[in-house]
Amino acid sequence: MGAVQEIIGSLQEQLPWQSELYQHFHRHPELGLEEHDTSARIASELGALGYEIHKIGGTGIVGVLANGQGPAELARADIHALPVTENTGDWTTHPRSKA
User: Fold this and answer.
1) 99/97 Cα distance (integer angstroms)
2) Residue 89 has what pLDDT?
3) Which residues contact 83 (CB under 8 A, 6 or more apart)?
């Protein structure tokens, strides 16, 4: 099997759990500074992948994957929902505010 086929096979193996996670976040949106459930789920998922979890601010998370000495990489993402209704045909969401 060639390198391209191995990469495609790996991506196809990851698609089900990534799709489930995407759908979960879109079915359960949380507005800014209220994303406690979202933050907990991300911490759980990263922890299961071997990341060291650090909580910062109210709902922020830093996941560190140690790999020895050398260069480091950083990825950042916003995790809050926007105050709009999403209707994709598969589900309809209404961002919830706990205030």
Assistant:
1) 5
2) 74
3) 31, 95
Q: What is the C-alpha separation between 68 and 98, in angstroms, rounded?
A: 42
Question: What 3-state DSSP class applies to 61?
Answer: strand
What's the CA gap between 96 and 30, in Å, rounded? 6
The identity of residue 96, as a single letter, is R
The label of the residue with tokens 């109210």 reads 58
Report the C-alpha gap between 32 and 80 in whole angstroms.
5
Please give the full DSSP string across 16-45, using - where no structure is assigned: HHHHHHHHHHHHS-BBTT--HHHHHHHHHH
Q: Note the pTM of the prediction, 2 decimals.
A: 0.82
Contact in structure between 53 and 62 (CB atoms under 8 Å): yes
